[in-house]
Amino acid sequence: MSLPRRLMRIVFTFLYGLHLAVRKAAGRRGEGVHAVPLTESGKVVLVLLTYAPRWRLPGGGLKRGEAPEEAILRELREEIGLLSHGGIERLDAVDPEPAVPGDRSAFFLVRDVVYRPRRSLEVESVGEFDPDRLPPDTARGTALILEQWRRLTAPAAPPAGG
Fold first, then answer.
1. What is the pLDDT confidence band of residue 23, given thresholds at 50, 70 and 90?
2. How far apart are CA 5 and CA 51, in angstroms?
3. Handedness of CA 126, 145, 12, 110 (dihedral sign)
4. Confidence bin at 20 (pLDDT 50/70/90)
5. 80 and 46 Cβ atoms separated by less than 8 Å
6. DSSP state for residue 122 in the 8-state scheme
């Protein structure tokens, strides 16, 4: 990583941490949204943020009066450069609590995403990965949420002896 990128990461990480500390001290907790964006070939699209280490699911906070479905599409446009998508399904059975204690995010599966990454101060890199072979530097919370999603969508085992 180049020196300017490293400095930018340090500054943004500090500012993000400060932002979270101020919100916590003020007793404010916003609601958020995160996506499991899948390409037509079944790859999951993850982001590497400038202010947080490791590959993560794209997402963010809801704006006042914004519906969660609108928010996740806005976040995908901002973070991965979403151009088009197929179906959107809310993943109510995904529980972020074991992965990220205190998280109040809604999770969505967004199928058939077509995107074009664009330069951003927030997103350092966008990548596609096989959900069963995530990179070793995937955030723990992201890996746990994807594991929950895979268990929920795994086909049922055939009955024994049948």
1. very low
2. 11
3. positive
4. very low
5. no
6. S
Backbone angles phi, psi at 53, to 5 degrees: -75, 160
44 Cβ neighbours under 8 A, 6+ residues apart: 36, 37, 38, 128, 129, 130, 131, 134, 146
Radius of gyration (C-alpha) of the chain in whole angstroms: 17
If 0-12 CB within 10 Å is exposed, 13-18 middle and 19+ buried, where does residue 103 land? middle
Q: Which residues make Cβ contacts (< 8 Å) with residue 28, sequence separation at least 6?
A: none
Within the chain, residue ranges assigned H as helices are: 3-25, 68-80, 140-153
Which domains are delineated in the chain?
31-151 (3.90.79.10)
Contacts of 122 (CB under 8 A, 6+ apart): 12, 49, 50, 51, 78, 79
> Counting Cβ atoms within 10 Å, is residue 55 exposed (0-12), middle (13-18) or buried (19+)?
buried
Which residue in this structure is represented by tokens 């930018």? 8
User: Between the CA of residue 27 and those of 21, 54, 60, what are the distances in Å?
Assistant: 10, 27, 18
Q: Looking at the predicted structure, is the pLDDT value of residue 80 above 90?
A: yes
